[in-house]
Amino acid sequence: MMKKFLIFMTILCSGYYMSQTQLELNEIAEKKYEKTWNELNVLQNKLLLKYKTQKEMTNKILTGHKIWIQKRDNHMKLINKEGSFFPVRWYNELTYLTKMRIKYLKDNFENTLQ
């Protein structure tokens, strides 16, 4: 029981739930996205470094990344851009899509990254 209470209090006291203004919520969502984007870049660079002697594979990785960005950007055009909560929705969606890309790369290059 005490453990559940402590978990609840940790969540309650986290910055996301304690933010009082929309601006703070926007900033938190943006920082979360930036962290996830940086994680993707680190992973991408590891792959490029691993395959640096294999030009064809390097080109496939870079081309795949460019195509993914185009698909992501097209998807983002569908988001309703109205309302004060728009920036949070925007960054949360970017974070989600980026996490899915990270998962895809990890799943498909798992042996390579070890």
Polypeptide structure, described:
- This protein is an all-alpha fold and 114 residues long.
- The protein contains six helices and no strands.
- The protein has a single domain (21-113), classed as Substrate Binding Domain Of Dnak, Chain:A, Domain 2 (Up-down Bundle).
- Helices cover 82% and strands 0% of the residues.
- It is elongated.
Task: Please report the first level of CATH classification, the CATH class.
Answer: Mainly Alpha
CATH fold-level topology: Substrate Binding Domain Of Dnak, Chain:A, Domain 2
Overall structural class, as computed from helix and strand content, comes to mainly alpha
The value of Rg in angstroms is 18 Å
List low-pLDDT spans. Answer: none
Order of helices and strands: HHHHHH
User: What distance separates the N and C termini?
Assistant: 39 Å
Q: Architecture, CATH level 2?
A: Up-down Bundle
Strand content: under 5%
| Number of helical regions | 6
Shape: elongated
- What about the largest sheet? none
Total domain modules: 1
The average pLDDT value, as a whole number, equals 87
